[in-house]
Amino acid sequence: MTEDTLPRVLCVDDEPNLLAAMERTLHGRFDVVTANGGTAGLDAIQLGEPFAVIVSDMRMPGMDGATFLAHAREQAPDAVRILLTGQADVESSIAAINRGAIFRYLCKPCPSDVLIATLDDAVRHYDRVRAERELLETTLTAAVNTLTEVLAMVAPWAFQRATFAHSAVQHALSRLDWSDGWIYSIAAALSQLGCVGIPPELMQADAAQRHLGPDEKKLLREHPEVASRLVAAIPRLDLAAEIIRYQSDNPPPDAPLEVIRGAPLLRAALELERDWSRTKAARSPRDVLRTVQPPVPDYIVRALADFRSEVNHHRAARVRDLVPGWVVDEDVRCTNGMMVLSRGHELTDTAIAALSRLLAAQAIREPIRVRSRAD
């Protein structure tokens, strides 16, 4: 095994002799980088290749281990953090664990075999985290994309609503300091799956706030539960499923933090879509959300306050000029009236190729109204 393939480990201490001893102990098993103090450690994180493990002493001048590891967590969230300390100070150790999400706590002096075994465990944990992220970014994302494509074909109006909500949630997440943002994004994208069996006329009547009968209200009331059950069947999406379940109401107080945060965010996004669908006007999100019941938390309202200020470029384009990532700004139908793509559908290479074939067969007409985000 070459040094390039060894797990990278950052060791931070204010005592050069201890750093040199650790480097000798770990040489050949890990690619070791040393840093004299917290500031130098943060520089090493920023300037070099990613570290699998970060080991820090607790008592250092200027920046103690708790502070350093908290900053290290922000800069390198995947790196596994280990605390070394000779102190019997329980309070400072707890502070380090809470602020830096410490994987393991070791007392100094630490026997070499214990340190190496701990680092081996840490590297395995790092590899698992990276593998899980790859799963989320590939297999799970592909499954979600397939479901949304099915929704677009079966219930274009529901797909349009979910697309609007997803865009609003993404906008809010860019202003909120929340980890695991993918959970909230997926919940928005799949929030309307339960609408597949609801007639589009009923959804239009609801959007227009027309009178609905008891059976119609029951159908609308049950669709979040239906979607939640469908999504819960997908591994790793249990939290997203619960957010979907409570998209119209407050979750119970003992629900996980992600659900307590995510449910009102999704509800706010859907309320903005409902208002836009009814008025076709870009009203102030603050004005829309201030009357919503149950009330939307103020910090979510603030995160969505400028959502509609991000102006889209609208254009009429020929099929040959379409670009993946543009969004269809009108329902695209065949000359016989059959729906091809619904308004809000993000164009892919596959969708553009299908439109090209339909155009060649004179089954659709040009131009097509599309929009793209402002540069």
Strand order of the largest sheet: 2-1-3-4-5
Q: Which value, in Å, is the CA radius of gyration?
A: 26 Å
Poorly predicted tracts of residues: none
DSSP strand tally: 10
- Helix content, binned percent: 40-55%
Number of helices: 14
The amount of beta strand, in percent, is 5-15%
- Give the integer mean of the pLDDT values: 85
Shape: elongated
Task: Please state the oligomeric state of the protein chains shown.
Answer: single chain
Derived from helix and strand composition plus strand pairing, the structural class reads alpha/beta
Distance between the termini: 46 Å
In short:
The protein is of the alpha/beta class and 375 residues long. Helices cover 52% and strands 12% of the residues.
Overview of this structure, please?
The strands form 3 sheets. A 5-stranded parallel sheet has the order 2-1-3-4-5, sandwiched between helices. The model has no long low-confidence stretch (mean pLDDT 85). It is an alpha/beta fold. It is built from 14 helices and 10 strands. It has helices at residues 16-26, 38-47, 65-75, 90-100, 112-154, 156-173, 181-189, 200-207, 214-232, 238-245, 257-279, 285-289, 298-304, 349-360, and strands spanning 8-13, 31-36, 53-57, 80-85, 104-107, 312-317, 327-328, 332-333, 339-341, 368-373.
